[in-house]
Structure formats: C-alpha cells, structure tokens
Amino acid sequence: MSIRVSEGLFRLDTADTTYLFQKNAFAHLEHLHYGRKLPEGDVESLRQKHELTQGSAVLYDEKADPSYCLEEIPLEWSGVGKGDFRVSPAELKLPDGSFTCDFVLDSYRIEAGAPKMQTLPSAAGENAETLIVTLKDKAFSVYLDLYYSVYEAENVITRRAVLRNAEEQPVLIKKLMSYSIDLPDRKYSVATLSGGWISEANVIERPLLTGAIVNESTSFSQHRNNPALALIEHGATDDTGSVYGFNLVYGGNHQTTVELSPVGLVRVTGGINPYCFLWELKGGETFETPEAVLTYSAHGKNGMSQNFHAFVQKQIVRGDWQTKERPILINNWEANFFQFRQNSLLRLAKHGKRLGCELFVLDDGWFGARNTDTAGLGDYTVNRKKLPNGLDGLGARINGLGMRFGLWFEPENVNDDSDLYRAHPDWAIQRPNRTPSLGRHQKMLDLTKREVRDYLVENVTHILDSAPISYVKWDMNRKVSDFLDGAFLHRYELGYYEVLTRIFEPRPKILLEGCASGGSRFDLGHLCFAQQIWASDDTDPIERLKIQGGLSLFYPVSTMGAHVSMAPHQQTLRDTPLFTRFAVAAFGAFGLELDPLDLKPVERKVIKSLLEQYRSIRQTCQFGRFSRIETGDPHIVQWQAQTEKQTVVLRVRTLVPAARANDLLEIRGLDPEKTYTLRQVQSPLFVGAFGTLLKHILPVKLRSYSHLLLTADKYAKMDDYAEEYRASGAQLMSGVRLHRSFIGTGYSDKMHMQGDFGAMLFVVTED
Ligand code: GLA
Q1: Which domain covers residue 604, as residue numbers?
Q2: pLDDT of residue 689
Q3: Does ligand 1 have an atom closer than 6 angstroms to the CB of 352?
C-alpha cells in the first residue's frame, strides 16, 4: 500500500520517496515533507515551527491561536484573503462576490488505480493508488477535490484539483491551478526549457531568489517555454543531490510559478495559465484542472530524468507503439518541399528502402491546391496531378517496396485560399470587428465548435481508412490570435483532445507523430496520443544536442523525432559530418529527411551500413536508461543509454582544442566485477574534407580542387580509428584513455581525425 492515512496524517510512499501532510488544528492541510524516503515515526521534526509571528502578520484566528499565520505555514493548498500573501493556486469569485476563500478538510477516500478524467487526458493509472482529499470552503458549499495518484515504481506522484460548485449561484474561476506545494528553502535553482522556432528546449537555469520565477505560455505549450520545470537543490549535479521535477499533462496555456517568499518558504504551483482566463462555473457544475506530474530524486538531474522517462513510457505514451522500437523513416519534406510527383516520391522511397528505411512519410503538399504554404490548407482531397493513383495507389506501391506508408496533415488550420474556408468562413477563429492576424498565411479552425470537430474527425478518418496509412504526422504551424479569452483556449484544447481521441483511439496501430513548427507542442498532453513528437525543424546535430539534450531532462528519447538531413544545414548553414548527424539522431525516433540521390555514392554506402548497425542498438538508444554525462568540458557533450546487456555512449566534440594529450571517456552504470567489450562504431572520413592535408598520408600532393580528389571523394572513404577494449566494468568506469587526435605532426592509423563537430559512438556489451 502506497497511501496511508492515520489520525489526520497523510502518507504517500513511492519506491524512493515519501510525501507527507497533516490536517492541523484549523483543518488546513499542512505540508510536512516531500523528498527522500522516510521510515515511519514521529513527524514533529518535519513540522514548521511558528510559536512567534512577524509584527506585520495577519493572524488567521487570533483568539484560537495568536501564532497561526497562513503566510508562514507550508500548505498543500491555499486561498485568498486569510493572511497568505504568496502566489495563490486559486482565485475564485464566490457567490458573495468576494475572492476571499478558505478551504478546509472535509473528507477523503482512497481508490485503486487513477480515476479517469472527464475532459482531459491523464496518466494510465497502471498499478497506481489515488488519494482524493475533499476540501470545502468555510462559507460556501464549494468543494475542491485534491487528487494524489501514487506511482510507486516510477517514483512519481501526480496531482490535480477538481472544483465542484454545490451552490445555486455561479462561481467565477479566474485562476485554478492543479497543485500547490510548499517546500523549505534549499537554495534552489530553477531549470526550464525555453527557446523558439528551430531553437527549442534550451536549458535555462537560474537561481531562485526572493520573488517568483514564472514559466508560462500564452499560446499552447509552445516553443517559448515548455511546461516542464526542475527545482535543483544547491550543489546538485547531473548525478548527485536533490532534484524535483514538475510537468503537466496538458498542452494548453500553462503556468508554473516558483516563489521564494520573504520568510524562506518555496511555493510551486502549476496548471492552466490564468492569462485572460475567466470561467463561469454554474451551480452543480465541476471544473477539472490538468494532471500535474511530480517527481523527486536524490540522484541529481539524471535521477529525476530517469523517473520521468519511465513514467512517460509506461503511463503516458499508449497505443501499439508504446514500447516498440520506432521505424526508421524517410520523410520527403526537406528533400521536396511542395515539388513532387508520384514517381519522384517512389524514387525517394526506393532509395530510402535501399538504405534501410522502414517507413516512407509523405509530408505537406499532397492535397488540394497546396503548392505553396499560401493555399489549399484544409482541403484534404488528394491532388491527382501529383498523385494520379491517389493515396491508396501510392500507399500500395510503398507497401510493395516493403515499407510502411505515413502521411502529413495539419487539420487545425486553414488557408483563406481554400475551398474549406470559402465554404465555412465562420469556422475560423477571428473577431468580427477586427482584421484577422495570420500565422504562416493561415487561420485556426475553431475546435470549440462541435460541427468543426465532427468535420475534422470525419475528414481525417475517411482518409486514414482509404489508404494503407500506418503513421500520421499531425502538424500545427501557428500560434493563436484573435481569440475570445483564456477559457476559450482551454475549450479549444478540450476540443482538440476530443478530436484526437475520436480519430486515434479506435486506430491504436497508427504511429502518431506530433509536430508544431517543430517542437512547439512537446508536452505530456500530446504524448497521451502521439507516441513521438518532431523535436524541432532544426536538424543540425549540434543544435540538436541542445534541443534533444534539453528535452531529455523530462522526456524519453523514444518520444523525440530526430532526422539526418543534408549539410550545410538549412537552419544554420553549418556543415556537420554525416556520422555526427547519424549519431545524434540515433538518440531519437530516427529518420532521414533528405533525398538519398543528393548524397555521394560513398555516403549512401556509409548510411546503409550505419542503419544496419543502428538496428542492433536502437532498443537501447530509444528505451534504455538514459543519462547525460558531465564531462567538465563545455565543448564535449556525452550521453549514454543502457539496458542490462548493452550500453551505448555518444560523445560529440563541438570544438576541438589544439594538442590535447588526454582524452578520457568515462562510462557509467556498469558492474565493476563484470567483463565487457567496448567497441567504437566505425566512423567514415571523406577524403574531400581534408583538402591538401592529404599530403600527410599520400606520397603525392593533390590539389584540393583536382578532378582526381573530387572523384575520390565521391566514391572512396577512409575510416577513423575505432577503439576497442576488453576490460572490467571498474576499469571502463574509471575512464578509457582514447587515442590522440590529429595535430598536424604526422599520420598514424591509430589516431582520430574528427575535427569540430566530430562524434564518437561506443557500444559496450557484457561478455
Ligand atoms: C512544419 C513542420 C515541418 C514540415 C512543414 C510542412 O514546418 O515542422 O516538418 O512538415 O511544416 O509544411
């Protein structure tokens, strides 16, 4: 049993953590502890002491207790107007027209599993236990149910709040968060994932000083700020120290506030962003807030990440692909944009298949008058000029090549220049009295309208059932504008979830990849439907180290779409080695996003061989225990993924220092006693990259632009030195001294010739 309640003490245990709170003399829920696992026993040492109060304190009930001031009590929930001046999880206008409210314990119950939510997606509840604590406002029959679902094995506790109005008059919800928790100050820093288009999920870590840090978005989960957040105790590292993680199973406008109050208490509260939010809750109605996911680890950021990864893989991601290795896909977007015909697609697919791809994805441009991004969005009738045999014809031919067939949609948006918009201008989100503001030349469809939702479901399912489509990329390429209010945006999100449920729940075999101009909608709400999400339109692997590395704080590798594209990269003009592009994408839901015929023949051979090898490490990379390894060098990024039998280590050097003699590769998590073989995956060296430096190897001097060299570069490659050792786990964990890198003093076939942006990939297997 992971939940126990006795004499007003509520105790929630996971494998490695304990969460404790207690009903106090005023029936408020006083928070005692969330963190490392505690044995049972007296909790007095955990209680906030408050014999004395500040001179300026507002006392809750002076007669009953002249030392009880809500401002100084760690609480599980707080209200407004009773002396707690911290950020409140709720702002409710009650039937007396006042925002003053005071929620006290009314009752509680415990249920097996996790009760399903009525309006929102939530974690699966497998092997969970749920505590539902009901609070009641002291003056009105307004109830708040606080849900705590305990996921013992995953070290996760989810929380959410449901407001029930048992009064006859309405309650106006201005703000209602999913949870609130008050922790003691441990000199935390706060890490969030922030960024923008093609630069998603950069980790921003800043110290928590007195005041509040607000992580929020005002247009769905958004590139700008991901809903996830970590609270890192002073001194914690990747592998040591206390780290708390918070996330939301919600893709709408979100807000998480971390506040260090002047008296030294830290409040974290998260949920729907109160931005422009006003929701009238009529008598007899209830309002559900999104489920929040909380975890704690005493093993640093990696510990927190591993808790989240296991939880997301088991309790959030669902469908037939939940635990399956993701197919190696080839997507035609960067290869074709809107310019293709059936034959060119088939050629792409055929070459992709030769390289080892398992799924062909037809991206934007297959329907209506969609030849640029200014027209046709909304009209999902196949463009017969481009695809004379329709989607079923193309799909059958792709299947005939031995590949699955996947298709792109952007169902939530519409171009003005489309038959759909011409027929239903009233379906678009716009204000009657204002000129609409477009994003990527398109308007959003109003998913709060039933007829729009019905149309989308019918339209998309009709196409899905008309051709052998086993993968869908569901895109969404704009932010919202011209909306009514925050409550409308929440209703939109509910409508969106309804549409996804109706389309994909009956079709669990379809692999769904979410996308929103890259990773603008990377959140747990979407992962309840999409098994993977396109992490970014930026396919430059050096940028991807930040993007995928940042996402890995909270999301497992199996959920991050990652592709090998052509270099120089469209997004940065950076020229990166093919092997690095492969190795970074290997830590993702892997794919190619290029025309194989744009590759040199020797590059095609290399990719074919790498994809063959990838199949033997894919399970480990996508589903293994993932860690970021601190190297102490800002120019070396190292990740590893581990299953019982195999460890895969990626090491990328973004900038090469001159003349270093000591390059140490540390591996984690091996059994010190066991013997392992470490093999480096052979990485190719293309002769063209070396120009006149070839004089170090060749007896003759070749001009870098000579015909001979250009021809050699097309067909021939050399191999970088590949390290190989057989050693104990203890030895490998204490560091492998790698062979030296080229420094211009000569050539040896036992040196590395990687240069800037070079990657090394090692596979360690137990003997
Ligand atoms: C967005 C996506 C891309 C691609 C294009 C198609 O930008 O992020 O991957 O699908 O749309 O228009």
Answers
A1: 329-624
A2: 85
A3: no
